[in-house]
Amino acid sequence: MTTQSTFPVLRSERLVLREMREADLALLCSYLGDFEVSKSLSSQPHPFLEADGRDYIEQALANNTAENVTWAIELDGQFCGGFKAKELHGAASVGYWLGREHWGKGLMSEALHLALTYLFQKRGLETLQTGAFRCNPASLRVLQKVGFVTKGLRTNTSNARGGEELEEEFLKVSIDQFRTESDEHSPFKDKELL
Description:
alpha+beta; five-stranded antiparallel sheet; about 25% helix; disordered N terminus
């Protein structure tokens, strides 16, 4: 079980990446219960029920943060999405989602910069990988903007789509490829990570 003293809380201009809370359950279920959100994720079911939400939060809180970190993304004091970093001592990977009402505002780019800066600078990772369904071009654009490069195509299942196999791009980014947005207009410039 993580505690506030050990959990890596990250802050940017608009967002806080923090530990999941029981109080996030209603919004978590509302957002992941939206097929437009869950259809682009591999592991979340549809419909997404309260029991699924409780399992999600329970697993997030049970993580050993040395290996796996599940952040709640918070905007203006309110839960708005999730971000996971997994297998941090192996083939480290990331995954994320936002509630639909928060799309198109640059929030996921901001969260991705924040988390990757932490993972590269504070956790000493050299590379990160992820996958994005080809039918989700918005996610692919967000990844490419921070330096992720497509390394190949593969198939992955979407639980929300009843286990349907979809074509997915497999992407990687190295610490050298990561675009830190360090110019003077960046919301990440001179921000404390912890």
